[in-house]
Batch of 2 targets.
Target 1
Amino acid sequence: MKKIFVTGGAGYIGSHVVKALGERGFDVLTYDNLSTGHAEAVLHGQLVVGDLSDSELLRRTLNHYRPDGVIHFAAHIEVAESVDNPLKYYRNNTLNALNLWEILRELNLSNVIFSSTAAVYGIPEHNPVTEETPPAPINPYGASKMMSERVLADLAAATRDFKYVALRYFNVAGADPQGRIGQKYRNATHLITRALKTAKGEYDGLQVFGTDYPTPDGTCIRDYIHVDDLAAAHLAALDHLAAGHGSGVFNCGYGHGYSVKEVVAVARQVTGIDFRVEEAPRRAGDPPALVADSRRLRQATGWQPRHDDLDFIVRTAWEWEKRLG
Ligand code: UFG
């Protein structure tokens, strides 16, 4: 594989994957409407500014570029917003994805890597969660991604020359260690980003949502994965398909988690700022613990994490936050 088409390559995770593809010598074309992405985050290849719903532009761009592989990030990702506005999520994350698969089929293109999420598991009974755990999303965001996965599975089963890998991301965090790219959303809701913005003084205090969970310190446990390790999983998935393996679904996480209180402690230590923390009620829809069993990804693709270190994750995110000013 030489040429990779990346939707959403100007976004947080997409831009780290474009960086990794460029560093490995791939030819990359990013297709992004820049609704939440940033043109300057695309460090390699070309950028075509376009919307996934613009079938004509999408078809023309794909037909002209003729990629060997397609990585599909472009999606809405806010759980709370998906609850308030489910149609927005089903339209963009499910319908627009279907539109993309249709065009790929029309043009006889294959080798799709699809951004999925641990949100497909809902509130799992057991941790670490394996890919065998039946999907049971509890919000439209998770459901919209699960539906796209299902369409891909059915399509691959029906089509001999169509293959895909769905990657189920756990809690992605951190930034480019060289400080060139990182998370840059208007209203970030993620724990590490909120904690660091609180340290910077953007918020008066950090709320800890729920301290009465059935976990050792009462706060929720998550599997935080550095965005560059997640990016490497995408390259491993492409290699997997290029080596002739079939379609698959893989969890992306480290296999162990940290509580909200543990993350707060690391954020205070890394920043050297004793920012204010207040206990708040539980946030709706938060599972007590969500930790990936990532053995399948490691065994099938040989993926090995390089930054399994919460201190490093928070440090790279902090360097990026400071650059944002
Ligand atoms: N949290 C706080 N205070 C905050 C923000 C978060 O206490 O200000 C807590 C949450 O309640 C949760 C934990 O920190 O217990 C992590 O919350 P995040 O919002 O950082 O991440 P989530 O686990 O809710 O969700 C993330 C992605 C989703 C994805 C999900 C899958 O945001 O898109 O992981 O695991 F679906």
Note: The mean pLDDT is 97.
Target 2
Amino acid sequence: MRTVMECMRDGIDEEIIGCAGEILRRGGLVAFPTETVYGLGANALDEKAAAKIYGAKGRPSDNPLIVHIADWDAIEKIAVDIPVEAKLLADAFWPGPLTMVLKKSDAVPLTTTGGLSTVAVRMPGHEVARALIRAGGGYIAAPSANTSGRPSPTKAVHVAEDMDGVIDMIIDGGDAEIGLESTIVDLTGDVPMILRPGYISQRMLSGVLGSVETDRALISDDSNIKPKAPGMKYRHYAPKADLFIIEGSERKVREKINMLVAEQMDAGRIVGVIGTDESFGCYHGGVIKSIGSRADEITIAQHLYSILREFDEMDVSAIYSESFDTPQMGQAIMNRLIKAAGHQIITV
Ligand code: TXA
Ligand code: MG
């Protein structure tokens, strides 16, 4: 299959959107930008189209897809018994990086929801995404546009690395603004529950809803506790190199990383370091990359996946990373980083 690459970095191009919408309405696959990560879109209400997503990604069929909408009223076709909390959250955070799990209607095929009786719904903030959703019929299933097991794409070139020749079109809308997948909150239980942390923090959700809980599996080291979002149970992504997170006071972390790097280099190995704009100059060896600034935590979220992809292209045997427990996005950043590190944390 030939994959068409279209650029749409400066606002909506109606002609391209019309063409991409047509592909979606005919059951094809289009990757598109969102404010979190790039999505791999298909018509969510067309079982065959949704099934193609699993094939293109190599994704297990029990891992449900998020249905993307562009207008609040669209929700009534795909969800039933919509609680008042959903409207409150939509008013506060949509369009934006929040996904809500609701009871599904019969209009949504079980292929889309991985066999579940619930449906995850999100209205993305990126205007190209919303224009495409409308052009494509209003209901677009879109997981992150990576091959299963690779970091989510935050740039169109990442999508091309994984999906060129496999899907119909890629729309390049520039770098993803947030860089980590949306927060998922489940509204089908007694208390709203966060199934995946993201830019919209527990505190922001509590500000609107009062009490909000976090799925225990996300904060526990016990791997026997199954996460409630099926996708969170997969070790999303393991870098080719061994990744270690070094935690502790700023000075000790820098000393420890320098020591580990020196040891490895003495043994003739090439290693990587993930630091920040603030610490970058303090490291003495290895391939040193700055993930962003601690003064602007969104830059850290934005660069995490692309740095991991960059290290995969290089022949490093180990990567040592600082810990990024920043105030708002720290939980989301560390959730993804700890998974990538397979829980290898060195405390100093
Ligand atoms: O930011 C995002 O949400 C991106 C962009 C493209 O919108 N999409 C995304 O999709 O991250 P994906 O497929 O990579 O992750 C979806 C997650 C998975 O962990 C899945 O198990 C969970 O959402 N999920 C989907 N439907 C669910 C449901 N009904 N109940 C519980 N978890 C669900
Ligand atoms: Mg994903």
Note: The chain has two domains: 4-219, 242-347.
